[in-house]
Amino acid sequence: MAVKTHKRPSPASRSTQPQLRPIGVLRSELKQRKGAPRQGSEGAPDAWLEVHPFAAQALDGLVPGDDIIVLTWLHRARREVMKVHPRSDPNRALTGVFATRSPDRPNPVGLHRVTIREVVGNRLRIGPIEAIDGTPVVDIKIVLDCHKDS
Amino acid sequence: MAVKTHKRPSPASRSTQPQLRPIGVLRSELKQRKGAPRQGSEGAPDAWLEVHPFAAQALDGLVPGDDIIVLTWLHRARREVMKVHPRSDPNRALTGVFATRSPDRPNPVGLHRVTIREVVGNRLRIGPIEAIDGTPVVDIKIVLDCHKDS
After folding, report:
1. What is the ipTM of this complex?
2. Contact indicator for B33, B26 with CB cutoff of 8 Å
3. Residues 81-110 in A contacting B (C-alpha not used; CB under 8 Å)
4. Using the beta-carbon criterion (under 8 Å), do A4 and B149 form an inter-chain contact?
């Protein structure tokens, strides 16, 4: 059973237009894409995820120690790129971006599995995460163990 | 090193507007959300992922047996919902949607980890997947093992 917060759901609220509305923003010491780790496991730092007020109550239930998947909008990515040399290595064969984790792809949504270190109001300290400062966040999903069913 | 397909990248191509452009659509025997499994592991069927021609070359390198994460736009979800009773069970406490896997959430992007069964041109047979027929697909990401680095 779903509980609405502001108004009755209407057919119009079931948008068929895939327009994202950022629910927060990442605050990180990583200021530019160049030099940033390619994966969180490659020495990335912790960062703060600031959730915008309109979505703050959707955090209810998250606690330190939880593993979450943060979905970001990689706003510096190039959306027209369809093939890349993996790891930017010209010796590696050109590969379709769907067979890689390149940020350059038609819809540059980043997935970042991180641990919640701290919850302070509408801010989460999370990590490790390789996304750069100012990256818009579009969703947060709890990681489910096989037998956990929420 | 990224390779462009059609034109030079320009600053304007680095969109800051999080507007998704579906890269494909799911063709499934599941025709409605009601009654669909909540997770792929709960008895969901295989389905066909039809990739639109503009993105077909981004599939290059994917082969049967690969595990991928399919990102969908859950077009039937209610975006104004911030809290839910997990598993639609009224006996369970209201919980923020970010602490659940409810499809109802501000940006209803679905994550589905599936295996590629077959590749036929620009179509992938994948599964198991609980998303319903007609669900727009917005991205495909190869699953990386810890020591695989593409």
Report:
1. 0.85
2. no
3. 81-90, 92, 94-102, 104-107, 109
4. no
